[in-house]
Design a protein that fits this description.
single chain, 425 residues, mainly beta, 2 domains, 22-stranded mixed beta sheet, two-stranded antiparallel sheet, 5 helices
């Protein structure tokens, strides 16, 4: 090909150098290969799962693995399904968390942020298992809460058939639903399941509200639970509030619990009101100290106010020092002056034994100069309350009563000491 110069002469036309064309062709081919490789990589769930687990492990300080077959969907919002998931801290023999199935729906921006910005659309957990002891050991290694970013959840967090394990107890059949989670916003959750501790079963159905995900924040819980023993049950319609504290283990500060309760057995139904206040914490067991306790409107159950502490791990320990507001009218009438106290009766209760109170409890009651020191077992006292009226006039207990004066029909006795022995075993 030639070009006319205008004076009749011709010159060859300029062409792009072949080397330049080959360069652009190579760049285009490489780009297409890289794009195809990227698309192929993104379409392989195991590759995406490895990236997600790697980022999550780095952000949480845990070794997170998924041994089952993973699934990844690019249609709509990206979704990743992981199976047989385990999260474990290096050096700890017990996993913090395990689950049969984990569904995550989250944007790529979360992955790119390397844990600095955590936005999740939806999380689903099937048969998750959480170990409280391992969780506490992991939390002890985490930075202060103000240094951790608050995640954002836009489309729900759902737990199905979960299990939480502690020392001597477990929560099973746990169903949990959280609608949304966002910095500075209220978090609402619904919880159902049951607690198992030895022969005790405690089914519950509760609604919880956390004022904001950032700590400290107020927590409110309302709903129903029932303490079930082989011979009796105690339904509670409760309201609980407090301030969670995860800075040093698991704790609930400024805890206040109010409940309308009912003791129900084969023959008896006794309604009463109950209030508990104090600081609850968990470290190899439940501890409430200081503990405030009040019982009201219980009929045969006395009106009591006082404080102390409660420790529940392998066994139960309760120390209570307070007062009985009055001698219950449903109890057997006592001779004067025992039956006519001038005011509340100082009362001390101490118990160490099985969690169902089947062991011996020590009881001390004062009425002026009159003193009672004795022992009893709660299941036998409850059986006495359950017996037909007046079948046995005195409750099943052992003890000693001392009083400077005792009035009985036709006589007044001074310097009296009476020993009570229960032989109904």
């Amino acid at each position: 090909m030639t070009a006319d110069t205008g004076d009749g002469a011709t010159t060859p036309a300029k062409r792009p150098p072949r080397s330049r064309r080959r360069t652009w062709l190579i760049v285009l081919v490489v780009a297409l290969v890289l794009l195809a490789g990227l698309l192929r990589w993104a379409s392989r769930p195991q590759q995406v799962a490895s990236l997600v687990l790697s980022q999550a492990s780095r952000a949480l300080g845990l070794r997170i693995t998924a041994k089952g077959v993973s699934e990844y969907t690019l249609r709509g919002l990206p979704k990743l399904v992981l199976r047989d998931v385990t999260a474990q801290r290096d050096g700890d023999a017990t996993p913090v968390f395990q689950a049969d199935r984990v569904l995550l729906s989250l944007p790529w921006s979360t992955l790119k942020s390397r844990g600095r910005d955590i936005t999740v659309h939806r999380i689903e957990l099937d048969r998750p298992r959480l170990d409280i002891g391992a969780l506490q050991r992991w939390l002890a290694t985490r930075p202060p809460s103000e240094k951790r970013p608050t995640p954002t959840l836009t489309d729900g967090f759902v737990v199905t058939d979960g299990r939480v394990t502690g020392v001597g107890w477990a929560v099973e059949r746990l169903a949990l639903t959280v609608q949304t989670l966002a910095p500075g916003q209220r978090v609402r959750a619904a919880l159902r399941g049951r607690i198992i501790a030895g022969a005790t079963r405690v089914p519950f159905d509760l609604a919880a509200t956390l004022m904001r995900p950032e700590m400290p924040a107020g927590l409110g819980v309302a709903g129903n639970l029932t303490v079930v023993q082989p011979d009796w049950r105690l339904p509670l319609d409760l309201v609980l509030r407090g301030v969670p504290d995860f800075g040093d283990g698991l704790a609930l500060d400024a805890m206040v619990l109010g409940a309308q309760a009912r003791y129900v057995s084969r023959e008896t139904s006794l309604p009463f009101a109950m209030g508990i206040a104090g600081r609850a914490s968990y470290a190899s067991g439940l501890h409430i100290a200081p503990l405030g306790l009040a019982l009201r409107r219980g009929g045969p159950i006395p009106d009591i106010t006082g404080g102390g502490r409660l420790d529940w791990g392998d066994s139960l320990a309760l120390a209570f020092d307070g007062r009985m507001e009055r001698w219950p009218e449903a109890w057997p009438a006592l001779p004067a002056p025992l039956g006519r106290p001038n005011g509340p009766l100082p009362t001390t209760l101490a118990y160490t034994g099985p969690a169902n109170f089947s062991g011996d409890a020590a009881l001390h009651v004062e009425s002026g100069a009159t003193l009672f020191d004795g022992r009893f077992r709660l299941p036998r006292v409850l059986a006495w309350l359950d017996a037909p009226a007046n079948a046995v006039p005195l409750p099943p207990l052992d003890g000693r009563v001392s009083t400077p004066r005792l009035e009985i029909p036709g006589a007044t006795l001074e310097g009296v000491e009476v020993e009570i022995v229960d032989d109904r075993e």
